[in-house]
Amino acid sequence: MKKQLAVASCVVLAGLFSSLVQAKSVLTVYTALEADQVKDYQEAFEKANPDIEIRWVRDSTGVITAKLLSEKNHPQADAIWGLAATSLMILDQQGMLQAYSPKGVEKLSPQFVDKAKPPKWTGMDVWAAAICFNTVEAAKKHLPKPESWADLAKPIYKDQIVMPHPASSGTGYLDVSAWLQMMGDKQGWAYMDKLHGNIAQYVHSGSKPCKMAAAGEYPIGISFEYRGAQLKEKGAPIDLIYPKEGLGWDLEATAIIKGTKNLDAAKKLADFSVSLDAMKRYEQNYAVLAMPGVAKQNPFIPVDYAQRLSKNNFGWAAKNRDAILKEWSRRYESKAAPKE
């Protein structure tokens, strides 16, 4: 009987040990990645790291940034995978990011990596402004095809444009930030005052204006290039316009939250985020990547796309974000779409 009990005990202990060995680390990852990207990225990471399971917390850039800041004293996230570099700079200013140099980071273009040694964040890809122009709806309304940001302020486009709300959307903020940097403070706000007269709604997503234009809800959507290229490839009657003054842009990037209890797993995520495998997946969505030599030419994005990006002072955009958004809301909040 004692022998049977001993054997049974060994079996139970072996089972418990096996369960402990097989137990996965659950990594809470905050992201502003598009919803149709996260599944592919997660599957690739978990295949490479079968002992780690990602639990996503996903929302638009402004919402995720605000959530992280509100949790500063009691962090809930372990890592961030896919958030604007300007947002990560704000978090870094608050002392919220863990310095770490991912394996293989030296293969990335230096301008897409935080200058700190070791870096607080590492870049993934660039996304930039573009105008989605529904040729069918525009023809019905006798609207000319715009070629510049200045064109969008012309009275003929009154109530025909949708754009992202800059407090909710990273795409919206990169537009506003770029206009202020390109035109200067006084002229930038004057331009947005005129543009406001032509805006039908400020929506709470960077991709939604292009989706709305593609569906014919409005003839013009200020959005970003990859979503426009994707919709056009699927047959949407839209032209993609890259305004001649220059394109506002930002970097999607990865970082580790300081104080995470899953630091080893978070480091593995950071390692994967800069890997060739990850870059090949980013390439399916973006034309400019942090790792040179991986991106392929998209037929709907100009060959000289990278040269069309405006001069962007990320530090300035991060430092002045709160003041810019406060002034923007004071002027234009009346046309904000209801939050879903």
UniProtKB/TrEMBL annotation:
Keyword hit for Calcium: no
One example GO MF annotation: metal ion binding
One GO-annotated biological process of the protein: thiamine transport
A Pfam family assignment: SBP_bac_6
Signal peptide (residue range): 1-23
Superkingdom assignment: Bacteria
Keywords: Iron, Metal-binding, Signal
Any one of the GO CC terms: outer membrane-bounded periplasmic space
Keyword Iron belongs to the record: yes
Annotated residues for binding of Fe cation: 226
Designated name of the protein: Putative 2-aminoethylphosphonate ABC transporter substrate-binding protein
Annotated source species: Chromobacterium alticapitis
